[in-house]
Specification:
The chain has helices spanning 3-43, 76-87, 93-113, and strands at residues 60-73, 119-131, 136-150. By secondary structure, it is α+β, with helices and mostly antiparallel strands. The chain has one domain: Hypothetical protein apc22750. Chain B (Translation Initiation Factor IF3, 2-Layer Sandwich), CATH 3.30.110. It has a three-stranded antiparallel sheet with strand order 1-3-2. A hairpin with a 4-residue loop joins strand 2 and strand 3. Helix 1 runs parallel beside helix 3 (93-113). The longest helix has 41 residues, at 3-43.
């Protein structure tokens, strides 16, 4: 074996090791983020947030716009799997968890701005992919709505 072949094998080996490590690190980070999301969702479960366009027949003391946004990058493993799935026109399941985390985190950040509100109504989402057409490196999710404070 000449030195070029050895160098090529080492590069391939490093790429495989990096791919495997990125799977485990990405999975650990995603699981930790989901655990944090679940904990915070339980704490804010009493604050309803939805697409409701009409309010209760109660006097409103105050209303204000609230928003929450997040940018989440996909890990190397997920991006490779997503690229392969898109080549074959398959469902990109690894991107679904990325979008789910982004949506839930954006809603939580929005709710955290209005913890003392009675409800958040007319909630909407905006999403933007980060990266070029061929390679998506992450997503930005924005959740916004109107926090309603009823007269006590």
């Amino acid at each position: 074996m000449n030195s070029d072949n050895i160098r090529d094998l080492l590069q391939l080996g490093l790429a495989v090791v990096f791919f495997i490590v990125s799977y485990f690190v990405g999975r650990r980070n995603e699981q930790a983020h989901f655990a944090d999301i679940i904990r915070r969702e339980k704490a804010l479960a009493t604050l309803p947030a939805g697409t409701l366009r009409t309010l209760e027949e109660r006097p409103v003391a105050q209303s204000k716009m609230v928003l929450g946004n997040i940018v989440i990058a996909g890990d190397f493993f997920k991006m490779v799997v997503a690229s392969l799935a898109s080549v074959f026109g398959l469902r990109i399941a690894v991107a679904e968890s990325l979008m789910d985390r982004a949506r839930r985190e954006a809603v939580l950040r929005m709710k955290e701005q209005a913890q003392d509100a009675d409800a958040i109504v007319n909630v909407r989402f905006e999403t933007m992919k980060l990266g070029n057409r061929e390679k998506i490196s992450g997503v930005e999710m924005l959740a916004y709505g109107t926090a309603i404070y009823y007269v006590k």
